[in-house]
Write a structure and sequence with these properties.
Shape: globular
Number of domains: 3
CATH class of the largest domain: Alpha Beta
Largest sheet: 10 strands, mixed
Order of helices and strands: EEEEEEHEHEHEEHHEEEEHHEEHEHEHHH
CATH superfamily of the largest domain: ATPase, nucleotide binding domain
CATH architecture of the largest domain: 2-Layer Sandwich
Strand order of the largest sheet: 3-2-1-8-10-9-5-6-4-7
Number of helices: 12
CATH topology of the largest domain: Nucleotidyltransferase, domain 5
Number of strands: 18
Length: 385
């Protein structure tokens, strides 16, 4: 049986989960090479810190290893995930972490920013689906992995946060009260902030959009401060730890970045609120959910301005856990011990993706275009025939 996987291809970090294990690594890809020497005393001992892969015949370092060792590397900020070569490398690396043995079959749910969704969802799904043979090396030994992706679902990215709230671990509607409400989602990422509105489970296109405001803007402000104050030049992928700790060491001396970090975060939060108010009237919304790693970082500046808003639990991984729950609903629950909800092993027999489970609200998903792309395509083909 194919295993269900949720993958969040963030511009800052890749998040992936099967419910039992989460993986998070920087969305950075660099040129791979044979390392001259691996120190026996290194502190980088976890596989996630040593991701070396070969995809389509080319060797890459991924995540932390790329940041440490690659001469040429990038954190892609392009809007078209499907045409970015880094996207396939990041996706295959994430899936390879769940391959037990030499091969594994998966069903995948992932997302795209709302403003890019219609234009790029089909190309992304086509790129992900099928058989992929890659080589993975996390400990000095090359291992060939065959990744078979059977079913793929692409959804507007912020909906992952909604599904994390609505569904239980098997993909059954649990929060029926929220399903009857009009909910706004603000998902603050590295390159974009995504806004989505769902009214009684209906996705409202005209109120759902993306902006290019994100944590990268705060990074740019802090990077400029480092250049001007200390003559230190850092790329955005080199700033993650510096900004997290709010300090930098220059010539052995530690300098606090608390003030510039606060100023940068305030500026970005103010811009996000302005962008939100240009489209939404927050009085029309029963609930606003603040999500994403950026949502957590900016919560202290955003939440006081929004009466009905709250920061979702585990906001950095809310989308990816929602993707997995949707996979459980659409493709049938697979036998993973779930980190969230129940730890009981589940099988496809427990879930009928077309069933309302006795709930009118859950049944509304049957008419939602984000749940029935395959059915709609089949119907269209039959009409043409």
């Amino acid at each position: 049986m194919a295993k269900n996987i949720g993958i969040d291809l963030g511009f800052g970090f890749v998040k992936a989960t099967n419910g039992e294990k989460d993986y998070i690594f920087p969305s950075v890809v660099g040129a791979g090479q044979d390392l001259t020497y691996r120190s026996e005393l290194t502190t980088y001992v976890e596989p996630i810190e040593n991701l070396s892969v070969s995809v389509d015949g080319k060797k890459y370092f991924v995540g932390d290893l790329a940041i440490r060792q690659s001469e040429i590397l990038s954190r892609s900020l392009g809007e078209n995930h499907a045409q970015e070569k880094n996207t396939k490398v990041l996706l295959m690396t994430a899936l390879a972490m769940f391959v037990q043995g030499e091969s594994e079959e998966f069903n995948v749910v992932t997302g795209l920013p709302p403003s890019y969704y219609l234009a790029h969802k089909d190309a992304l799904a086509e790129m992900v689906k099928g058989n992929h043979v890659i080589t993975v090396n996390t400990d000095g030994t090359d291992r060939k992995k065959t990744i078979i992706v059977d079913k793929v679902k692409i959804i507007p990215q912020p909906l992952g946060t909604l599904f994390q709230k609505l569904f239980d671990a098997k993909g059954v509607l649990e929060d029926k009260e929220s399903a009857r409400n009009k909910i706004g989602i603000i998902d603050v990422g590295f390159r974009t902030t995504d806004f989505a509105v769902v009214d009684k489970l209906e996705y409202i296109d005209k109120l759902s959009y993306s902006t290019t405001t994100g944590m990268s803007n705060a990074y740019a402000i802090i990077a400029e401060h480092l250049r001007n104050t200390y003559r230190v030049y850092k790329e955005n992928y080199e700033l993650d730890e510096i900004i997290q700790k709010a300090q930098i060491k220059v010539a052995g001396k530690v300098h606090s970045l608390d003030q510039i970090k606060k100023e940068a975060y305030e500026q970005v939060a103010a811009k996000i609120l302005t962008e939100m108010n240009s489209i939404w009237d927050q009085r029309d919304l029963d609930l606003i959910m603040l999500s994403g790693g950026g949502g957590q970082a900016l919560a202290e500046f955003i939440l006081p301005e929004l009466v009905t808003a709250s920061l979702v639990d585990n906001s950095q991984t809310a989308n990816v856990h929602g993707y997995l729950k949707l996979a459980q609903k659409l493709f049938g629950a697979t036998e993973n011990k779930q980190k969230f909800g129940t730890s009981t092993e589940t099988t496809a027999a427990n879930v009928n993706p077309d069933s309302s489970q006795g709930s009118v609200a859950d049944g509304k998903f049957a008419g939602n275009r984000f749940f029935n792309d395959n059915k709609n395509e089949k119907d269209a083909k039959e009409k043409r025939a």
